[in-house]
Write a structure and sequence with these properties.
This protein has four helices and two strands; from the N terminus they run ααββαα. The chain has 96 residues and is an alpha+beta fold. It has one domain. It has a two-stranded antiparallel sheet with strand order 1-2. A hairpin with a 3-residue loop joins β1 and β2. α3 packs antiparallel against α4.
């Protein structure tokens, strides 16, 4: 009996202690102008935007004067998506 109470208590702690939370808005409501402002605050410049379905979208910023290709931008978009890992695997296999 005592052992099962301990096991249940540990399971309950794991379930309660692993909650994920997010802060801030999930949408860029001001479009590219808001992205330029966000990137500027980080001393970066806007190179693109990404829309991830109806839930969220975001800005793609780069370090000012850094060399970046459109391929690098595409990889950043894929890696930031929910299914990015699977797509990256297919992309890498196709490039082998």
């Amino acid at each position: 009996m005592k052992k099962s109470v301990i096991v249940l208590s540990i399971l309950a702690l794991f379930l309660v202690g692993c909650a994920t939370s997010f802060t801030g808005g999930s949408k860029i409501s001001g479009g590219p102008e808001q992205c330029v402002e966000i990137c500027s605050k980080w001393k970066m410049e806007l190179v693109g935007m990404v829309a991830l379905g109806e839930y969220t979208d975001g800005c793609i910023c780069k370090v000012k004067e850094a060399k970046i290709s459109t391929s690098d931008i595409g990889k950043a978009v894929i890696l930031s998506s929910a299914s990015g890992a699977g797509i990256v695997g297919v992309w890498q296999k196709a490039n082998d």
